[in-house]
Amino acid sequence: MTFEANNIRQTGKFFLAVIFCLLFRLLPFRAPNIEPILATIMPLGRVYGALTGFAFSILSVLLYDLLTGTAGVHTFFTAGAFGLLGFWAGNYFQSRKGTVADYVRFAIVGTLFFDAVTGLLLGPIFYGQPFSAAFFGQIPFTALHLSGNIIFAATLSPIFYRFFIRQREPETSISTIRSFKPKII
Fold this sequence. Notes:
Elements: H1 3-25, H2 37-48, H3 50-68, H4 73-92, H5 100-127, H6 131-165, H7 174-179
């Protein structure tokens, strides 16, 4: 396979993952913050690196907010927090085997980081919400977010990893096959 073909395949997988996350987030009656972005950036960062994890995270958030007409100051906090998680995932998983336990551990810490940045800072700083209200209001939201991310990390992340590393089987040519069969006289 040529470098260009491999690059096109990787780009296609990247955008398929973006579309998958976007369509999932567009599902009606979905619980808040039950989304596969974190479960996707972990194997994506592991396979393609920190910058790809960062770009995927930013693009996923921006695309959704622009398509739904909900872009605002929260978009930058959300995209920034996911971007940092995507960058961190790329670095974290370079030295890990990528087991289900690795994905779950990252999902727990990543979710707590994300919810602290978006839930505890955004309301008090930009909307005048008291910090105590943001903190106590964030608890059930984070519990739901943690549940979803742990389940997705244990189930979707290994599936995404196999999807990202899967390569097309090499094509066998007739000459290759003949070289293994001696000529019979």
